[in-house]
Amino acid sequence: MLSGLMKFLRACFRPSSDRYVHTSSEAGGRQDGLLWYKDSGQHINGEFSMAVVQANNLLEDQSQLESGCLSSHESGPYGTFVGVYDGHGGPETSRYINDHLFQHLKRFTSEQQGMSVDVILKAYQATEEGFLSLVTKQWPMKPQIAAVGSCCLVGVICGGTIYVANLGDSRAVLGRAVKATGEVLAIQLSAEHNVCIESVRQEMKSLHPDDSQIVVLKHNVWRVKGLIQISKSIGDVYLKKAEFNREPLYKKIPPS
């Protein structure tokens, strides 16, 4: 079973400059229905690969792998960056993250001369603020963009340290081989922000004590305002800014 799973997930990376799923013979990729994959080869911290299985014909998700591109003034190029952006409501947010988050991370790493938790936080914040600006500009012509969002899971490996940052309910898992037995242990590295989890529901209620509808059980599923399950994300501006949660958006939000 494990062997079959490893074959299924083997070697799947598309360069960040080509953010769409459609593969070509020139890119060396393969596509089987809504599954695509491509060998990524060697990277500065070893071999890395990714797989993408589309849930539907419109790809709302993005994934990104960058290596040797995070630098400080003193040490030169180092580090490996992996990003998984699980979009919902449309592809705009995940594509925006794919185009901007890593660039922000490089800039802050250079300014602070090294990787740190603060650098990652600043990159996330700059990406969120940038997408908010995009929504503000496009709102009059395209109000639906206010209801588009994305989970954002990032792993950065540098200097012998793994940094993991997460918004939403994607999960980072580390596989550790046990030499004595040959088994592989799965170690969870990130926590999900999904209101199906009791502690997350309690957090939402404590943050919004005056809103009895902040978390609603709908069709046996807990949802924020009865709409989405995740409590943190990039985008979803209509749930963060009241000025975007009004007509004409109401008529355009698809039923949950």
UniProtKB/TrEMBL annotation:
Its cofactor is Mn(2+); Mg(2+). Residues 55-256 form the PPM-type phosphatase domain. CDD domains: PP2Cc. Keywords: Hydrolase, Magnesium, Manganese, Membrane, Metal-binding, Protein phosphatase, Transmembrane, Transmembrane helix. InterPro entries: PP2C, PP2C_BS, PPM-type-like_dom_sf, PPM-type_phosphatase-like_dom. The chain crosses the membrane at residues 145-165. It is an enzyme of class 3 (hydrolase). One of its GO terms (molecular function) is protein serine/threonine phosphatase activity. Pfam families: PP2C. Its EC number is 3.1.3.16. Belongs to the PP2C family. This is protein-serine/threonine phosphatase. It comes from Hibiscus syriacus.
